[in-house]
Design goal:
CATH architecture: Beta Barrel
Strand order of the largest sheet: 1-2-3-4-5-6-7-8-9-10-11-12-13-14-15-16
Mean pLDDT: 88
CATH superfamily: Porin
Order of helices and strands: HHEEEEEHEEEEEEEEEEE
Distance between the termini: 30 Å
Number of strands: 16
Number of domains: 1
Strand content: over 45%
Low-confidence stretches: 1-6
Number of helices: 3
CATH topology: Porin
Helix content: under 10%
CATH class: Mainly Beta
């Protein structure tokens, strides 16, 4: 996609318009368009104190979150999700690769999809757009816009991508299989780039959830392959999450484990979590490992005000690299 903000805004508005109008041979009035529609403006500010280098970075975000279910006389036709955020970095030394530097500004697409669901029970749904890669814990737990995450980007090299998927939620299992361009935020991916991914698991509303994922990608000159097993177990207000990954980066073996223990209050306004992430890689000379911990809390008041904090630190690092410590705070308001 062209990086010119005006052209990107034109594309953004055109996509919104076409997604709203195309299914709407199904509706003939503005009132019908508002049925099953949720829309909010999302504003947030985040600060990260990189304590090892005595530097503070800031991120300022303003955007829109739209969720619309289209229906006709035969039932639901599909679901449209549009999440686009103008994001400005200020001295943010650790940032996604699609930002040019620590002081860049970009229009960022999170989930930007239409999922066609008016299919037979044995037929898959068809999803198009900027979709989250179906892999691991992140696939069933929405952490977009929060400090909490499951290192999907650093593990896979990409978290969301422009592409297509087949998906379905059955009574006993759910699945999603995707193919995408490898461009990340951009539609203009390298001709040789690609991402293939799939996850199958038990339904996400159960107290015990297990999923199996596979992944393969070529992003620029980097190839990655993964097989993953993820699990969630809930008892009362507590939960234990885990994920194991095995694969390779450019032919070198990678093993990774993630564990999280968390607690939610009875109204689910407050969440407290403790994470550990362990990675073991085979280099040409020797094995090397990395161990990182994170502790965080999130207060989400009636899905409007959201205040969260997280402290993340390295216990061990690859190749005796410098250990990092990061204290992050975020204030978010949706209206």
């Amino acid at each position: 996609m062209n990086n010119n903000p005006f052209i990107r805004t034109q594309f953004f508005l055109g996509f919104v318009f076409s997604c709203l109008i195309m299914p709407y041979g199904l509706a003939s009035s503005f009132d019908e368009l508002q049925d099953n529609l949720r829309f909010s403006i999302d504003v947030s500010a985040r600060s990260v104190n990189y304590q090892d280098v005595e530097q503070v970075g800031y991120t300022h975000i303003v955007g829109m979150d739209l969720h619309k279910v289209f229906t006709n006389r035969n039932g639901d036709v599909g679901t449209l999700i549009l999440q686009a955020y103008m994001t400005k970095l200020d001295n943010q030394i650790q940032h996604p690769s699609f930002f040019e530097d620590e002081n860049d500004s970009q229009l960022v697409y999170r989930i930007f999809t239409f999922n066609f669901t008016q299919t037979q029970p044995w037929q898959p749904n068809l999803k198009l757009g900027h979709l989250e890669i179906p892999y691991g814990l992140e696939h069933s737990i929405n952490t977009n816009g929060t400090l909490r995450d499951y290192a999907q980007g650093s593990n896979l090299g990409i978290k969301a991508d422009w592409g297509v998927s087949l998906n379905k939620q059955h009574q006993l299992f759910e699945y999603e299989i995707s193919t995408s361009t490898g461009g990340g935020q951009s539609l203009q991916a390298n001709d040789s780039s690609y991402v293939y991914s799939a996850r199958i698991g038990t339904p996400r509303h159960l107290n015990q959830i297990v999923g199996i994922s596979v992944y393969e990608s070529k992003l620029a000159n980097n190839t990655r392959r993964r097989v993953g097993l993820d699990a969630q177990h809930y008892w009362g207000l507590f939960a234990l999450f885990g994920q194991l990954d095995h694969g390779e980066n450019n032919g070198q073996y990678v093993n990774r484990g993630l564990m999280e223990f968390n607690w939610r209050d009875t109204r689910e306004f407050t969440t407290i979590y403790l994470q550990s992430i362990y990675a073991l890689e085979d280099s040409e000379l020797a094995q090397q490992n990395k161990l990182t911990f994170a502790i965080g809390a999130q207060l989400d008041y009636r899905q409007r005000w959201d205040f969260s904090g997280q402290f993340k630190w390295d216990h061990d690092t690859f190749n005796e690299q410098k250990k990092t410590e990061r204290l992050s705070l975020q204030l978010r308001y949706r209206f």
